[in-house]
Amino acid sequence: MNSPIDANGSVILREVSRAFSGKTILDRISLDIEPGQFVALLGESGSGKTTLLRALAGLDLDASRTGHISAPTNFSVLFQDARLLPWLSVGDNLRLGLRRPDSESAVPQMLGAVGLGDKADVWPSTLSGGQKQRAALARSLLREPTLLLADEPFGALDALTRLRMQALLFQLIKQYRPTVILVTHDVDEALLLADRILVLKDGRIHEDHRVTLPHPRQTHQSGFATLRSALLRNLGVETEVV
To answer: Cα–Cα distance between 240 and 81 in angstroms, integer?
Structure first.
C-alpha cells in the first residue's frame, strides 16, 4: 500500500542566490515544488545543480546567501558515495543515529526491501558498489524523509547496475512517496524517473519540463525520444550525433 503524500513536502524558493569567493553560482532562483513530486536537475558541470541541493540541505554555510527557502526539515541526503562507516556492520550503519521506536524490526525489513536481507551483519568492504548504494538508499528511507535529496547517487555505477538501481529507487519512492530532488547528468535517467525536469544554466532555471509519460517508462516509447532530443538541445548537445 502506498503511503500518503505529506502535505508539508512542498519546496519553495524565492530569489535564492549563492556565491563563493565573489563568484555567483545560483542567481535569483524562484521555484515551487509540489509535495510528492519527483524533480530531476540537469545541467552542465558548474551550472548550480549541487549547489542548489546543498542550499536545500543547509550545507552551504560557507556561501554568501540571499533569498528565502522553505523546505521540509525532515529530509535525507543520498550521495554518490555510499559513505558507510567501514568499522560498523551494514545493519549498524543503518541503525546509527536512527530515532525510531521500531528500529530493531525496521532495519532488517528495509534491508530486505533493497535486496540486502542477508547482509545486516557483514562489513561494508564486502559489498559491491551497487550493494553499497542499496544500503545507502535503505539508510535514507529508514529516516522516513519528507524530502529526499539525491546527488548523482548512481553516477559511479556500471550501466546495468545503474538501471537496476533506478528501478529500485522508483519502486521505493512510489511506496514511501517523499518529495524527491535528483541531481543527474544522465538525460535518460531523468526521463525514466522524474515528473518534472529542470535544466540549469549559469545558475538559473533555463528550462522547466513536465514529464507526463506513463510508467513504467521505456526509451523507445512514444514521446520519450522527442523530449530527450529537446533536453539534449537545451544542454548544447547535437542530437544528430547522439
So the answer is: 34
Question: What are 36-84's pLDDT values in tens digits?
Answer: 999 999 998 889 999 999 999 988 888 899 999 999 999 999 998 999 9
Upper half-sphere CA count for residue 38 (Cβ side, 13 Å): 19
For 83-96, the pLDDT digits (tens) are 999 999 999 999 99
| DSSP per residue, the chain | -PPPPPTT--EEEEEEEEEETTEEEEEEEEEEE-TT-EEEEE--TTSSHHHHHHHHHT--TTSEEEEEEE--SSEEEE-SS----TTS-HHHHHHTT---TTHHHHHHHHHHHTT-TT-TTS-GGGS-HHHHHHHHHHHHHHT--SEEEEESTTTTS-HHHHHHHHHHHHHHHHHH--EEEEE-S-HHHHHHH-SEEEEEETTEEEEEEE--PPSSP-TTSTTHHHHHHHHHHHTT--GGG-
How far is the C-alpha of 52 from the C-alpha of 36, rounded, in Å? Answer: 19
What the block records as the C-alpha cell of 132 is 553499497
Q: How far is 201 from 49, CA to CA, in rounded Å?
A: 9
- Give the separation between CA 169 and CA 148, rounded to whole angstroms: 11
Domains of the chain, first to last: 11-85+146-241 (3.40.50.300)
